[in-house]
Amino acid sequence: MSENKKVRVRFAPSPTGGLHLGGVRTVLFNYLFARQQGGDFILRIEDTDQSRYVDGAEQYIFDCLEWCGLIPDESAKVGGPFAPYRQSERKSTYRQYAEQLVQDGYAYYAFDSTSELEAQRSQFPNFRYGHENRHLLNNSLNLSAAEVASRLQQNIPHVIRIKIPVDDTVTFTDLIRGEVSFDTNLVDDKVLLKADGMPTYHLAVVVDDYLMKISHAFRGEEWLPSAPIHILLWEYLGWKADMPKWVHLPLILKPEGNGKLSKRDGDRLGFPVYAMNWTDPKSGDITRGFREMGFLPEAFINMLALLGWNDGTEQEIFTMDELIAKFSIDRVSRSGAKFDFEKAKWFNHEYIKKADTASLKPQILSILKEKQIEIADNYYLDKVIAIVKDRLTFLQDFWEQSSFFFQQPVEYDLNSVKPKWSDVKTDFFNSLIGIFAGLQNASSAELEAQFKKLAEEKAIKVGEVMLPFRIMLVGGKFGPAVFDIAQLIGLQETTKRIETALKAFTG
Questions:
Q1: The domain 8-78+204-253 is classified under which CATH number: 3.40.50.720, 3.40.50.2000, 3.40.50.620, 3.40.630.30?
Q2: Which among 57, 197, 275, 348 could disulfide-bond with 299, CB atoms 3.0 to 4.6 Å apart, if both were Cys?
């Protein structure tokens, strides 16, 4: 590959279900590298396995990337100079290359039926189609040319398999791992073209990367065992000089560190592993996503960036522009990154704190709508968001942290009040009602000053009436500064709540 070749990277998911956070991280690293290098980021849909295709999954992928702000330069949605970007629409492209490999002696026709292969697997539990047994099986390596031609003419079902060399070593350079080598004796003859004429991933990824002029191939390290097949295909097709540079990303591990993070781990430990809610079209089961849990996309992206990469400093909060400027492959770790949900929550909390009210309002309005709360005063809502957002880990926490701004408490934490209640406190709050009735448009500071002045006059410690006052307004021992609450809900509503609570406290 020419050193001056334009940077072109791709994400090539299969439309089979939810988009795992590991997949989004692969997109992110592709995107950051392309933007930094002034290159192109391509989204290619790898739908060659029609048996696993799931309706709605392709649109779901586009929706996820749009939510994350990782918009491809070329895709099936926006088009581009190398269209089509769905492999199912490129079906006619692949056979010619598979046939070329057969003609050049690098691949062969295999006519083995499903029952014949099942018989082999029954007889040999660790059966694999390769150099040890291919001379014994039903393929063009063992049949005469006339017999092969006859079977092809009769359209007898067959696949095309790569012929892996014996006693050889495939070596390539990975930009994260350095030099990587594979013993070809441990690699089986993978199918390149299936009986239905569709390519497998192995053939399609190489052909499409070549035709789309991909310069760097970012993918998870779980694809490392397939690398020798792909390296050989680049060589056998005569394209080795144009082969992309390889970047095999470390796995995202379970929180305990032993093995790849899976949906099952999320279910077990109570956190999402998909970017957005995924609804299984067959069962209707919904798998919760980061978006629906209340993550901001900026926080989600920042969290993912630091799973396996760092810029060498102590910095943890990065804007997208900073990530683009600072990203480098040599700072990507070779080892897996443990997923820490508590850290993910911290990122989200930090981003909610610094978010402007306008950006949070659409989702918060949706939350209020679910609670059947109608908002007539947008200025009031803006004030509530501003006063509450520092207390939110997820946007879904908004109702729990702010319901008292929209309705009077339904119940009170009486256990924190009644055991220490006294007539002196009743008298204090009755007097406070009178004082508040004479105030108009008072600031929270003025309310606090009046409250403390009354406590001094009544010879009562401020702390003894501060907690009851909070519980009167919000129902429990939580919420922002209590005088900010009183000022925001208004003195008429504050007085009403004091009167209602006194009946509960003294009843």
A1: 3.40.50.620
A2: 348
The candidate with the shortest Cα–Cα distance to 218, out of 377, 24, 388, is 24
Give, for all 507 residues of the chain, the pLDDT tens digit. Answer: 445 689 999 999 999 999 999 999 999 999 999 999 999 999 999 998 878 888 899 999 999 999 999 999 999 999 999 999 999 999 989 999 999 999 999 999 999 999 999 999 999 989 999 999 999 999 999 999 999 999 999 999 999 999 999 999 999 999 999 999 999 999 999 999 999 999 999 999 999 999 999 999 999 999 999 999 999 999 999 999 999 999 999 999 999 988 999 999 999 999 999 999 999 988 999 999 999 999 999 999 999 999 999 999 999 999 999 999 999 999 999 999 999 999 999 999 999 999 999 999 999 999 999 999 998 889 999 999 999 999 999 999 999 999 999 999 999 999 999 999 999 999 999 999 999 998 988 999 999 999 999 999 999 999 999 999 999 999 999 999 999 999 999 999 999 999 999 999 987
Q: Sketch the domain layout of the chain as residue ranges.
A: 8-78+204-253, 91-193, 263-354, 356-396, 408-506
pTM of the model: 0.91
**Topology, domain 91-193:** Glutamyl-tRNA Synthetase; domain 3 (3.90.800)
Q: Which two tokens stand for residue 263?
A: 């949906």
* Phi, psi angles (nearest 5°) of residue 427: -60, -40
Phi/psi region, residue 301 (left: phi>0; alpha: psi -120 to 50; beta: rest), is alpha
Q: For residue 278, which of 58, 48, 501 has the smallest C-alpha distance?
A: 58
Query: Tokens in use for 336?
Result: 């897996």
Q: Please provide the size of the chain in residues.
A: 507
Phi, psi of 19 (to 5 degrees): -95, 110
What whole-number distance in Å separates Cα of residue 494 and Cα of residue 463?
19
Taking alpha carbons only, the member of 40, 52, 62 closest to residue 88 is 52
CA distance linking residue 213 with residue 232, whole number of Å: 18
- The pLDDT value recorded for residue 428 is 98
Query: Alpha-carbon distance 56 to 489, whole Å?
Result: 45
The class level of CATH for 263-354 reads mainly alpha
Would you say 428 and 454 are in contact if contact means Cβ atoms under 8 Å apart?
A: yes
Query: Are 90 and 142 a contacting pair, CB within 8 Å?
Result: no
The catalytic position among 5, 245, 260, 263 is 263
Closest CA to 188 of 249, 271, 104, 130: 130
CATH classification code of 408-506: 1.10.10.350
